[in-house]
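Q: I have two molecules that I believe assemble together. Could you output structure tokens for the complex as a whole instead of separate predictions?
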Amino acid sequence: MKLVIFAGTPGSGKTSVVKYVIQELKADFKLFFAKFDCLKTEDDEFIAERYAIPTIKKLAGELCPDHYTALEIPKIIKENRDKDIILLETAGLCLRCSPYIKEGLGINVLDVISGNPDRYGPILTEADIVAISKGDLISQAEREIFRTNVLKVNPEAKLAEVNGLTGEGVIDIVEFIKAFPEIKTEKLTLKHSMPSAICGYCYGNKIIDESAVRQRYLAGKELKNLVPNLNCGKCGFKSCNEFIRAVLDKKAKKNQCPFIKNK
Amino acid sequence: MKTEIEKITILPGVNKFGEKEKFGKIDVKKGEIVAIVGPTGAGKSQFLYDIEKLAQGDSKSKRTILVNDKTADKELRFDPKRKLIASLAQSMNFLTDTSVKNFLTLHLKARGKKFDSGLIEEVIKEANEITGEPIFSETNLLNLSGGQSRALMISDVANISTSPIILIDEIENAGINKEKAMQILLEEGKIVLIVTHDPVLAFNTDKRIVIKNGGIVKILKTTLKEKGIGHYFNWLGNYGLDIREKIRNGEMIEKVKLFCEPIK
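A: Yes, here they are, computed for all two components at once.
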């Protein structure tokens, strides 16, 4: 089985590229498509309907969508052992996280009119393939300058110039996917660590005030030590963090968590 | 070492239905223009992909592309820093907010070349031969008209870009002298591929490759008569540009020329 992660800012053309990749691969491989987003997406339904492949929708809700993606990857793999290729599209909101994994192929769909690539973080610098989109809107000269700038921040990247409207260039990505090795190990590793997200705001604090942030953080941390951190969902919430926030907001009772209750 | 491309040769592969393409080989030499025609979805992208990747029977179409009559070096096929085909499409715009001169310098730098004021002047001079409205080195890129932008893009591709093959995709609506533009690209020793159904461009070629159902079905050699027809349409287009300039200058136009001057 192979895992391919597509990351890129909203509007960069990720879904369009994924569409054409699926079209090229689906005759020869058993595919699965997972779409991650924050609040809402219909891309999974669209892909399922048009290409008749199994898909899943993953909404991060109160969680950081990239951390959530990393948490969910093992589950997706476990449930799809019979597939040849799992295609995963991230929410694409954060340039810093973009959870590429060492054992999978990381593809950054990068809009050529999105400015100088040197301000992008791991979403670009850690990608195996940079799919440069919307190149047909700018001059050849600017495209050449852009390519040079991409290679400055990610010299190892393979470049593909893609057109999300016509599918031109997607064939390059398909060849890279075909040539990429399968996942052989049970243990997956992130290519880079994600930034820490541990403060009162992570536990749902809204008051802009130092002591309020600290108080919320301490209360959150206390609960964090009690919950199993397995995101098992038995409390009725998608993740332990979401449950902790709900308890602190007095929207849930502590012993809704079976682990706390049984202690 | 860089391989200079003098000629590419396309050897037949198969169409969408797996049937062998019916041609011996197609040679395209440096300084030649070839039109690619055919309905949408016919397999134009695959054809260009085969050339860009110098396919060795390993692509979907199973075509083989030779460079200078030989199998292409690995180095030429897989170097990510290099692109064989530079392209000009219809909806292109400049987005960089800087002067023409600064921009060309930036492009030279991106290509790993040193600042060369002579070359930059040459790019602007040739761009001005393609468009009617003069471009100055201090003009801001964003203030260029459609025709000026396109003229500068063509001259830039001819002079600064190192890609030996230029692909032009449906460029007809621009306010430029198309024959002159082609001439400049060819003088710089490029191979020019044009995807077009515009008579000026399609007839201003050496041959036309007709693609249908994923396969090359015909190779038409452009005849002298067709070249004449193309020239007539080019004259008509340029005459239209003259009249546009007159309208821009607030002149009245109540008489038109009906016949074109013969090919020089």
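A: One point stands out. The first strand of chain A starts at residue 2 and ends at 7.
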